[in-house]
Here is the input.
Amino acid sequence: MDKAKRKAIIAGNWKMNKTPSEAKALLEEIKPLVSDADCEVIACVPYVDLAAAVETVKGSNVKIGAENVHWEEKGAFTGEISTGMLKEIGVEYVVLGHSERRQYFGETDETVNKRTKAALAAGLKPIVCVGELLWERECDITEEVIARQIKLDLWDVTEDELKNVVIAYEPVWAIGTGKTATADQAEEVCAFIRAQLAKLYNQAAADAVTIQYGGSMNDGNADELLGKTNVDGGLIGGASLVAEKFAAIVKAASK
Ligand code: PGA
Here is the structure.
């Protein structure tokens, strides 16, 4: 399938930034700047900002995502948030398996898979993050790492469910470090991810999946990265907190 037929998606990952009132202000700034976007525009924001964020973007083309979700519907899971809670306030997307969750909060491929299955069952669209550590790249096992993550994170996800899955390739060494993967490195791994999806499902299903690159993507390098055949969008950390920078990336994806 031609890249032009896949949905380009630019998603901001705000991480642990912005209070509810700050979130509202930033979204009010972003909205007019992206109103003519020819791609999907998402802001993934902290849990306590979600209700204000959904309210603020009503009537605009900006969608709201959460940064994680638990796999159980309810129960004794102090501090966790369920899919039902997100759905009720109008959240559409959810980032899962971000490397910061894997690194600092004990997230594993098994729990990423449980969250992915639960999100899909609830009608949320997961943005599933995969990516290798620097030393894994240096040891030349990037492909093994990515193949394993894709297989385990999407275990038992049906071909029909895959239509609602977005994959974000985020080399861990490029996140928040200012070190972007080169466009060729990003393309190489995004193409590899698509090949893995083709193996696990089939070529048509793989061709339809939006694969984002993430890791120090900004207004200066977005054009080149998004120009690559298998890079269909971006998951943006730092640059998503500055309206003009985020809007410039959205513009690059709209070409
Ligand atoms: P960054 O973060 O753009 O600040 O590198 C990307 C991410 O963690 O999703």
